[in-house]
What does this fold into?
Amino acid sequence: MAKNIDIYDIGEYFRGVVERAEHHAKPTTNTVYFLLGAVLQFSKGNIIIRTYKGETANVVWFYVDKRRYCLAYNHKSKKIELRNNSHRGKCLYEYDDSVSLDYIRKSFTLIQNMS
It folds into this structure.
């Protein structure tokens, strides 16, 4: 299940992601803040979060122009993946705390140019 969200929901979603990252995915704890900024800057349309049993999950969909993208946590690689179209889509970029802010900005700029 998913739902459209407002700015309060975005804050709640990312607080939950950070809490889960601190517990299960420490290598991504800082990166989620920068990804939030990139999603807000580049998104052109609804931001949709995945829910599971009424609680937010670690998946968010957003649109850059008319193309849909997904950020989802990969438990095997312990990285956040930017995927094309869906949570099962092709992984375009991977993020963890080892990547630079410039890498995040460039990856979002590249998907914007693809759209």
